[in-house]
Amino acid sequence: MESIRLYESILDNIRDAVYVLDDKGNFIFVNSSYVKMLNLSREELLKFNVHDFLETKQIDTCLADVVYSQKRRLVSFQDIYDTLYKGRGNFRTIIALTPLLDDVGNVKNIVSVIRRLEELTEDYNEASMKNAVSKVSLRAQMYASAEDGDIVAEDPKTIEILNLANNIAQAESNVLLSGESGTGKEVIAQYIHKHSARRGHPFVVINCASLPESLLEAELFGYEKGAFTGASSGGKLGQFEMADKGTLFLDEINSLPFNLQGKLLRAIETKTILRIGSTKPCAVDFRLLAATNERLDDLVAERQFRADLYYRLNVIPITIPPLRERKEDILPLAFSFLKHYCKKNSKTKSFSPQMLNKMKEHDWPGNVRELKNFVERAVVMSFDDTIEIHDIAAVASPVGKAKPLFTPDTDPILEDMMQRGVSLDDYLAECERRYVERALQVHKSSYAAARVLNTSQSSVMRRKKKYGI
């Protein structure tokens, strides 16, 4: 008896749902996970025969009958419908039924192990990620911990960059981050700031390519009241003053107009700035980090960038390789983005093994930004829980190279669906489900969702019930 209680305790504490049938289909054991899955008490379930679920249309096929007749193990998908006990919702499971035979070869018992499909997807994602990424040093793991936001450091080149960033974080020297667009220069700049003595003070970012020259000077240095037509009556603080005691990050500094470069150089050297319309210098205490997606030494040679400013900025150079040169980061980044966008869109998705290989082989000319956009599109646009896209380039290519996504001859997702034989009815039903689900997520009540969808509240509720939303 002690050993029986031990076995029951073990089965009662595993994640998989387990039940045991006798030779007539009666339930003689159910574990806690099965009780939780069906939202029924153990006492109720032990009164059931497996055919009761068929009669109440909670299942459409009794797989146990196949095992009883064929006397062999069976693994299959099984849909569980919410026809008897409302509120649980419909869901799909994968079930493995194993017969236990008596001395003459008849089925004495059936042991069934069940897992909801979304739980399998979660386990698959976790296992795939652990299998796909290399083990890194404890130090690198410390640097890439959760407090650092979106930093993923699995490739040795990225780990080396984080090591360098960590070493120079406590210094006050200027840092020049170089790399292609989308490689994560701002992420590294934020990392340096967070690990510096200035981390309790502002991290101020300005993109030098985002503003016209006339506004950029005012944005950087600020202005006094009445300095020019349209100026605020109270004047305006510049980014240098906003970054006082903190860090100022100048992104795309290669786009800084030539006539502002001298004023920036003076601010760096003297740690003072002069507002537009003012004659009184203002002292500021800041650390400067800058980033460029072009080679500044080439711009110096072409007389488009001041040599003296270049040498002032380039005290500690950090070059961030493109994603195609740090392949070991691709899958960990993809899984990180997948988790983020699945949570954001209330989805449960996974990448197929073939998809993982394709992502790692792709060059990602838009780097991390392109990969992030691709994963978001894949989560939102794919209809299956398993993401499989044959033509990554068609979906992921950056602006200027991308093909139209929603035309019949170029949409790889639609092409995949046709190859798998997804019917028009299934496609339209999925579109309807997603539209109603999204309206309910955003607007919370069925009445508000109905107004937005220009339909009746009862229509929304029918579809909510139909799709198990």
What does this structure look like?
There is one protein chain. The protein is an alpha/beta fold and 469 residues long. The chain folds into 3 domains: 2-119, PAS domain (Beta-Lactamase), CATH 3.30.450; 169-321, 3-Layer(aba) Sandwich (Rossmann fold), CATH 3.40.50.300; 324-422, Orthogonal Bundle (Helicase, Ruva Protein, domain 3). Helices cover 45% and strands 15% of the residues. A 5-stranded antiparallel beta sheet has the order 2-1-5-4-3. A 5-stranded parallel beta sheet has the order 7-8-11-6-12. Helix 21 packs across helix 22. The model is unreliable at 132-149 and 398-410 (pLDDT under 50).
Topology, pairings included?
Elements: H1 2-12, E1 17-21, E2 27-30, H2 32-38, H3 42-45, H4 50-55, H5 63-70, E3 74-80, E4 91-101, E5 107-116, H6 117-132, H7 138-143, H8 156-168, E6 175-178, H9 185-194, E7 203-207, H10 213-221, H11 239-242, E8 247-251, H12 258-270, E9 272-273, E10 282-283, E11 287-292, H13 296-301, H14 307-313, E12 316-319, H15 330-344, E13 350-351, H16 353-361, H17 367-381, E14 386-387, H18 392-396, H19 412-420, H20 424-443, H21 446-453, H22 457-467
Parallel strand pairs: 6-11, 6-12, 7-8, 8-11, 13-14
Antiparallel strand pairs: 1-2, 1-5, 3-4, 4-5, 9-10
